[in-house]
Amino acid sequence: MKTYPIIFLYFAGTLMLLNVACSKKQTNPKLEGTWKSKDGETTLKITNKQFTLDSESPVPEDYFLKGDTIFTSFEGNQPYTKFVIQKLNDHELSLMFPDSVAIEFSR
User: Is the previous residue joined to 29 through a cis bond, with omega within 30 degrees of 0?
Assistant: First the structure.
């Protein structure tokens, strides 16, 4: 009789962990869209699932946000590439690329 409450607690805890793990990834609606760099060389397309940088070869990558950092990976492979958001509003985006170069984008 005493094992039923323990089994119930483990089951409830497992359901809560699965709910958190399977929840939808958080995205920023201001971030989504097509961005062009100020120098006109780079185009950045961000959807709710993919991050595509069109400077050399357009390869769509999966991404997720953590704070003010965008982590991208090609088909879920690690290590992640980090892009730090320095400035973001409706019309301007400033990103710090992994090689410590800041590029400003506009819509």
Answer: no
Confidence at residue 26, expressed as pLDDT on a 0 to 100 scale: 60
- Give the side-chain half-sphere CA count within 13 A for 12: 6
> Hey, which of 3-7, 28-32, 43-47 has the most confident mean pLDDT?
43-47
Supply 23's token pair.
């929840």
Task: Provide the whole-model pTM.
Answer: 0.67
Amino acid at position 58, single letter = P
33: enclosing H helix or E strand:
strand 33-37
Phi, psi of 86 (to 5 degrees): -90, -35
Taking the C-alpha atoms of residue 35 and residue 25, their distance in angstroms, rounded to an integer, is 21
Contacts for 93 with CB less than 8 Å, ≥ 6 apart: 31, 35, 44, 85, 87, 104, 105, 106
The conformational region for residue 28 under phi > 0 = left, psi -120 to 50 = alpha, else beta, is beta
